[in-house]
Amino acid sequence: MIASVKPTLQATAASLLLKGPQSIRPLTTRTRAPKKEGDISSVFVSLSGAAPTQLADRFADIKRQLISGHEDAIWASWQRLLKRLIVENIEIAQQGPAVIPQIDFSNLSNPSQDFLQEVKKRGVAVVRGVVPESEARGYKTVVEEYIKTNPGTKAFPSTNPAVFELYWSPSQIRARAHLNLISTQRFLMKLWHSDDEEALISTSQPLAYADRVRIRQPGDSGFALGPHIDGGSLERWEPEGYGLGGVYDKIWQGEWENYDPWEATSRVPAVSDLYDGAGACSMFRMFQGWLSMSSTGPKEGTLMVNPLLQLSTAYLLLRPFFAPIKQLDSSTSGESMTEYLRADNWTLKTGDDITSELQGANPGHAQELSQVLHPHLDLSRTMVHIPQIKAGDYVVWHCDTIHAVDKIHEGKSDSSVMYIPVCPITETNVEYLERQRDAFLSGFPGPDFPGGKGESEHIGRPTLDFLSKHAQREGMQAMGLERLSTMEREDMVGGSMVVEKANEVLAF
Could you tell me if 395 and 290 are in contact, meaning their C-beta atoms sit under 8 angstroms apart? Predict the structure, then answer.
């Protein structure tokens, strides 16, 4: 344990402000300039209007290297995967929202084994009543007042906006520091495990990641995010991306059944933002998530997921290595579609036949999926809505889960959430937290997000005093404004080590 004296909160904040919002200490990863201004559309090719990128030939080389020596095993694994998808896709389509595991916040201390197993399989969960309903509804009222007071707030779409470039509103500050939310995040992190006890990761306490607000009005069709996965796109195949930790090695070896989406050690060194895209996430988020500020049901501008984590990941990664023998045309009947999808209609491309194509992946953007590019996932039927949600419910999904939002909000009231993910302590995450702390103190967007002046001139923007009045110790720690606790019984040796390193980075 480091024998150091913690400076006062005021002194720490004052020194950070003197350094300026973009001050960055030397990092073990990469330093970067502030990102240009923008909005959430910058993250997605389908929203930004940009043309898909023709990938360089080096990606064909990467693909060859990934499966070299495992071609027969890859072919056999593809056959098994397609057979399994047929069965699982039918079950998902039949169950719909009922397939999503749910639990009350009051039961987190004693969850059922069925719940835990279903979360591991589905990659998504609803935690009911994390924040009292009236309090969560109050968050929305305050956000709306904050926007009204600051009409220059950036948002997307530009007309009838749904997603606001807000990171530091009073409601977001209070929600991230809410003890119930922090307790829930701690529970969720424990669903992960590490094979290496010396891995530099701790799930003892979550770190805050400041993301946006969504207030989507009835009838909106502008914020129509199709199926996608965040956390990079090309990086999943690249040796300098997720390959650094060997995250998907079992899939490349033709053993997708042995791929464990919940093993954290391999994720620690992985890089998910090689191209510094606007909104590309450089922090390891075990779960993405949002806290609801309204009551919302299916087709009411809400979240949709493909709740088949292991299989969908394996399919996404293997799809670029296979091509149909008989193509599908627009006049194809249902019977012909069945023939098109048959395993024996798909051939493994090897050697010089391998192309650079990685379906739906573009540098600096999220991974996008579609019925055309990823036909065996049957996304038109297997993207299911989350169940009816109340204000104060917390919805989370694994960082590799395919998700989308309703194309049209068919409800009668707004669909409003604050995006709040679940982030463990790692060296990379703490380095980001330090920069994000600077951004909070000055009112700028966090380092991952489109730059500009953000909320630095917003009236009513919370200050450090506001946070200290509304956050207890755990909330201050999550924001990097209080020394992280070194637990007497960390799960692993590496956990204690990374907490000590974190306190050094944060100057405590």
Answer: yes
